[in-house]
Amino acid sequence: MAAGAVTGAAIAVAILFDLFIMPHYTNYNKGITVPDVTKLSLEEAEFLLERYGLRHEVHERRANSVYPANYIIDQAPSPKQIVKPNRKVYLTVNTAVTPQTVVPDVVNMSLRNAEIQLENHGLIVGTRSYESSRFRNTILRQSVAAGDTVSRGTVVNLAVSDGLGSRMVNVPDVEGMRLSEAQQAIIRAGLRVGEIRFQPSREQTPNTIIDFSPREEQLTEGQSILLVVSERFDAREELEEGAIIDDTTSTNQPPENEDESQEN
């Protein structure tokens, strides 16, 4: 009997907690639809959000020629989302003057951390060029010097380590290979395909490796190989060269009857 009373009391407490205490604690069934304050002035947006029972914070200021100064460009949470009362809405406000920022020093950072740092300063990560260096995905150089004051939205290009360059590798002998085969052999060896020069050749079929440089037994991993590749010898050039030789021969050759005319 006592056990049944305890069980009944527990069930009553659970029902009370579920129906009255938890809804009050979580503001259950009292969501607020976030209004759209973009394209409004900051003053109008503040007034509207307060009417909805929401707080606000200016998260960022940036220039946008489409909007007047002090107008809302963006907001988070976005319009029409349902949130709890007193939720904070973060506003991005247009400014007439492009805000400035100091470029962070991202050299020796990982690529991911460098991207986060630049984006946090309102900068745009541009091209990522890869170079041979020991520590993979580490920033070697940045196109805008650390400490410079620039406009937000400035593009910063990054030179990134590919993780190569820490050991010596054997250089494959690619002479006589087809160009595609040579490129694959060079890459498999841990080297790079550098400049490709084309040279007319009568002896080799087109796209065959005639020469390469440097001709070393070993190179540092990641170094580039220059390739000299055969291309079709132009038949017209061959005819023109032959014509020049014939013209020269005929010019220097004396007439066949010159001796006969002197005898007469």
- Helix-strand pattern, N to C? HEHEEEEEHEEEEEHEEEEHH
Low-confidence stretches: 21-28, 243-264
CATH architecture of the largest domain: 2-Layer Sandwich
- Tell me the fraction of residues in β-strands, as a range: 25-35%
For the termini, the CA-CA separation is 158 Å
Q: Quick one: how many beta strands?
A: 15
Mean pLDDT: 82
Q: For the largest beta sheet, what order do the strands appear in spatially?
A: 2-5-3
Helix count from the secondary structure assignment: 6
SS-based class: alpha/beta
Largest sheet: 3 strands, mixed
How many structural domains does the protein architecture include?
3
Radius of gyration: 38 Å
Helix coverage percent of residues?
25-40%
Q: What is the CATH class name of the largest domain?
A: Alpha Beta
Which topology of the largest domain does CATH recognise?
Trypsin Inhibitor V, Chain A
The shape, in one word, is elongated
Defining key terms:
264 residues; alpha/beta; 6 helices; three-stranded mixed sheet; 15 strands; Trypsin Inhibitor V, Chain A
Structure characterization notes:
With 264 residues, this protein is of the alpha/beta class. It has six helices and 15 strands. The strands form six sheets. Strands 2-5-3 form a three-stranded mixed sheet, covered by helices on one side. 30% of the residues lie in helices and 30% in strands. Residues 21-28 and 243-264 have low confidence and may be disordered. It folds into three domains: 29-97, Trypsin Inhibitor V, Chain A; 100-161, 2-Layer Sandwich (Trypsin Inhibitor V, Chain A); 168-235, Trypsin Inhibitor V, Chain A.
